[in-house]
Each structure stands twice: as C-alpha cells, then as structure tokens.
Design a protein that fits this description.
heterodimer, A: alpha+beta, about 30% helix, B: alpha/beta, eight-stranded mixed sheet, 11 helices, globular
Chain lengths: ~200, ~375
C-alpha cells in the first residue's frame, strides 16, 4: 500500500508525517509545503462534503451550522518548519540602510547612511537618480529620509538581485500632536528660565 | 596618564577622525574643570570626554563646574547629556537665543520625529539635557559676546576665567528668524530631518584666561561678509580681549577651513608660534585642505591635528553584497572612527612658562614632511 493513502491519526507528529519520510514518499524537500497544505485542505473539503450530504438543503447546511461547516483556514495548523515563505524572508541575503539626503547634485544626491545591520559607524552614499523610482523622485529634498534594501530576493522561488530605495512619505501631524509638543516646550521654558 | 596638579592648567582636544565630533576638557586650576562640547565612540557609544576625565582620575561629580554646548551640530553634541547626567554640579551653558521659548518648541518638535528616525542627534541630546535640568530644578546658563561664564580663584590672587566672545547680538536675532522661516517651515514636517545649517555664526568662541596665560578656542565660528557676526565682529567689537596679552594657544576654528581663517586672528589675538590644534572634517568634503594646513603651518610650527585626513572605502561586507554595490550607480564610503587626543599643559602662575604638548593615539604633530 502506498504511504500516501494511509490514514494518519491527529496525534501524528510532524517528524513522523509521511511527507517528511522522503524515501518512501518520494517528495522532494522543496515540495513539502505545497504537499502538506494540499493534504490538510483535502481533509477539510472532505469534511465539508460529508456535512452537506447530511443536510436536507444547502440552506440548512450553511445557515444553522455555518461557522462549523466553513473551512476555516485559520485553524489549519501547520508546523512552523513548513510554513510558506515568510514575507520578511523575501530577501535571502540583504543589506539595509536608512538614509537622509544631505546634498542635491545634478545627476545624483548625497546622503548620510545608517547601516541598520551594524548601526555603529555611518556611511556617505552618492546615489544616482536612475536608482530612484519615478514616484519617489519628487520626494528627494534636503533632509528627506529613505529606506534602502539591497540583496538577493526570493520571488516565488526565483532568485533575483534587487535594490529597493523608498522614500518616507510625509507623515502629517495632527493639531493634537502640535499642541502636545508646544505645551511641553512652554512648560520647560517656565522651569528652565536662564540666569540673567 | 594622571590628572594635572592643581597649579597646572590643561587644555585637552579630543577628536574622532572627522565624522563623530570633537570635545575639549579644560583644567582651570585647583581641580576646577570644564567640558566644551562632546563626542562619542560610534561603536561603544561611550562618551569620550567623560572617558578621558575618568581615566585620569577626575571626580566628575564634584570637579566639573561648567559644560558648554558651543553650537547645535551633531558633531559637537553627541553624548553631552551623559556628561550633564554624571557631572551633577556643573552648570549647563548654551548660546543666547533671542526667543528661547521658540527654540525649545523647535527642539521638542524635532525630537518628536525620533519614531520615524528623522530627528537629529542634537535635538535628542538637547532634549535629554532639558529633562535632566528640569529634574534638578536648575536653569540654563547663557553665552553671548563678552560674558564671563566662570571665574575660579588660584593662589597669589591669580584667577582663571572662561569668557564667551560670541554669538553677537546680530547673530542671535538672525538665528531667531532662521528658526521661524526655515526650520519650522521647511523642516518642520514629520519625516524631514533638519540638516546642519551653515554658516556657524552662532558658535560660542571662548577666551580662556588660565592664570597668567591666554587661549582662544574657536569652535566652528567662521568669517562672513557681514562684520556684525563671526570673527570680524569679535575682532572689531570685543571689549575683553587684552591687546598686551595675546593667546599662546589656539584651537583653530572650523576644522582649519578657509572660512575659519582671518589674518587678523593671527596678528591681533594670537602671539608668535602659538600652540595650534585642530580636528579634521571627513563627511561631505574633507578639511583641512592641504593649502590651508600649510597656511597655518606658516604661522606656527607647533601645529597639531587630532588625526590626519584620510581616504575611505565602503565597509567590509558579505562579498555578494559588495559585488552588488559595485555594480550599482552608487558610491558608498564609510566614515571611520579614529580617536586622537592633544593634551597641552602649562604652569598657571609662571608667566614665562611654556606649553607642554603630548599627542595620544591618532593625534599628530604636523611637520615639514607632511607637505613633501
């Protein structure tokens, strides 16, 4: 009997799951996630079909036991070792900076760069305007802040070299923000009266 | 290294290679010390003037009497809140503001940008200083032209004094306008960092009277076309400079730049062959330029720099990342940290005494071979 048709009890641990048994299952390591998810979803679909068969009408099947009958993907628990690619792991190997524009030149700008992976010494970067996306170019001005990520990105299994520069969008403060700041400044002024 | 004895004055210039600031620590005599500006080791985040003082055995809690923040630039202020925090008996002195309330509002507004990393180190530090002063129920001390900030008695009716020569009244008013028009309007938005604003007319220049001797500490003050501000204003209008007692030590202003130079400084304020010290600048552009350094060298052979100007490359990284950077239309260079200390000591009560200068770590005595 093929291992893939064997019924596994709910208490089966991931180490003992047939998918991890590469030799008998014939799965390759990079197919594990896809296979596991499909395997779990298949079970849920089977349960749904059974429920529907037990009701007189679709209405009865859905309305009265709607929550129970729905396939709740949130409850599908997959071991964290087999999760699909975390968006945060988009960059396999990367370098990240936060930069502030200090000078504007004809074909490039100069910025002070803080290495987010090693925030000790800082760097000075000369960035060509060709590296900036069109919608960000209008945000380039003295003092403007940007994030720069550089590295190897995994896009659906395809490895690409990427350099992403994105300027901070202006974050307007509310009147309440301003009032809070001004009130505190005025309070300090009253207390820190300079000597005559 | 040991602390100087009570009758020796000491002026110590600490530099960081041109990107992480400078600081001065000064012994006025009788265990009275002052700290002018501050800088940090970017890796350890240690406050360098505090490190120096503790290494030579100074009781920083009791013996530091005055902390001066010469001007509001990152490279002069990093770590100054730590100095104030530990030196609990020190007064905290800033340049005069025309409208202090407005200035504090601006500091608070800029500090609010911390969460989006658009705040300056200077406002972060200054904000902390304000909080410390508030908790101690203390006030600011204010520096302006021709003002005695501190006076210390020595033996034989001698004394040491710390006197500010700037900013001028005109500069104070102009800076107030600058805060309103540029700083609030252009850089007040939440995601924009305030850049360092030239010229440095609001810098506090200090005249030190160390017993029988005099020293000029030039901060970043520059020469401008308007003689109501900068060095020309001091040369024309100062009432406290003694024409018959010139300075025998000068901390060269603004990293030895052309705009920090005026012939009259060297003919009217400073004596023959003074001790001249400076720190380099190594961010956007390099200072001092060789021509300017040579010019200073023609004024005195006792020329010292906290570290030499050097070229830099990008940080060492994973080879794949380095390769990617090299293929981009971008250039990146690291601003390296190099600490250098110039320590100058003199007998306070002997009018014939000469300065004894010591260079530590990266500091160099500039000699003929530098220019060959």
């Amino acid at each position: 009997m093929s291992v893939s048709t064997e019924i596994m009890s709910p208490s089966t641990t991931m180490e003992k799951h047939w998918v991890t048994d590469y030799t008998t299952s014939g799965t390759k390591k990079n197919e594990i996630e896809d296979v596991l998810i499909l395997d779990t979803v298949k079970d849920e679909v089977k349960k749904r079909v059974i429920k529907l068969n037990q009701q007189e009408t679709l209405f009865e099947a859905t309305e009265t036991e709607e929550a129970e009958n729905q396939i709740d993907f949130r409850s599908i628990k997959i071991s964290k070792d087999f999760l699909v690619s975390d968006p945060r792991k988009y960059f396999l190997k990367s370098q990240k900076w936060i930069g502030h524009v200090s000078e504007i030149k004809k074909d490039h700008f100069i910025a002070e760069l803080k290495d987010l992976d090693d925030p000790t010494t800082y760097e000075i970067g000369e960035v060509d305007y060709d590296e900036i996306s069109p919608e960000d170019k209008e945000l380039i001005k003295i003092g403007a802040a940007f994030y720069w990520s550089l590295g190897y990105a995994n896009t659906n299994g395809q490895i690409e070299k990427k350099s992403l520069i994105r300027f901070q969008r202006v974050n307007f403060w509310t009147m309440s923000d301003y009032n809070e700041v001004l009130d505190r400044a005025d309070e300090l002024y009253d207390k820190l009266k300079p000597e005559d | 290294m040991n602390s100087p004895n009570k009758s020796n004055g000491e002026i110590v210039l600490i530099g960081t290679g041109g990107g992480y600031g400078e600081s001065l620590v000064i012994h006025l005599g009788n265990n009275n010390w002052i700290v002018i500006d501050s800088c940090q080791d970017p890796t350890t985040k240690e406050c360098l003037p505090l490190n120096y003082l503790k290494n030579i055995g100074v009781n920083v809690q009791n013996d530091i009497k005055l902390i001066i923040c010469t001007h509001w630039h990152d490279d002069h202020i990093r770590g100054i809140s730590k100095v104030l925090e530990e030196c609990i008996n020190a007064k905290f002195c800033i340049a005069k503001q025309n409208d202090l309330r407005k200035f504090l509002r601006f500091v608070k507004l800029d500090h609010k940008k911390v969460s989006v990393e658009a705040s300056n180190s200077s406002t972060i530090e200054f904000n902390k200083c304000m909080e410390i002063l508030e908790s101690r129920n203390k006030v600011f001390s204010i520096a302006s032209s021709d003002k005695v900030l501190l006076s210390v008695d020595l033996v034989n009716n001698k004394k040491s004094e710390v006197i500010s020569l700037s900013p001028s009244d005109f500069t104070v008013v102009e800076y107030d306008k600058y805060i309103s028009s540029k700083l609030f309007n252009e850089f007040g938005s939440a995601a924009t960092k305030v850049p360092a604003s030239p010229p440095n007319s609001k810098s506090v220049v200090i005249l030190l009277k160390l017993g029988e001797h005099r020293a000029i500490l030039g901060a970043d003050l520059e020469v401008t076309s308007d003689d109501r501000e900068g060095w020309v204003c001091i040369l024309n209008d100062s009432q406290v400079i003694e024409k018959n007692k010139k300075s025998t030590l000068i901390k060269i202003p603004h990293h030895g730049s052309q705009t920090g130079y005026h012939q009259r400084i060297w003919s009217e304020l400073v004596g023959n062959e003074p001790i001249a010290t400076l720190t380099p600048w190594n961010k956007n552009g390099k200072l001092p330029e060789v021509e300017m350094l040579y010019k200073y060298y023609t004024h005195t052979k006792n020329l010292y720099m906290t570290s030499l100007v050097f070229s830099e490359k990008a940080k060492k990284r994973d080879k794949r990342i380095e390769k990617m950077i090299s293929k981009l239309k971008c250039k990146i260079r690291e601003v390296k940290f190099k600490q250098g200390i110039i320590r100058s000591q003199i007998d306070l009560v002997d009018p014939e005494a000469k300065w004894i200068v010591e260079t530590i770590e990266e500091a160099e005595h500039i000699q003929d071979d530098y220019f060959s």
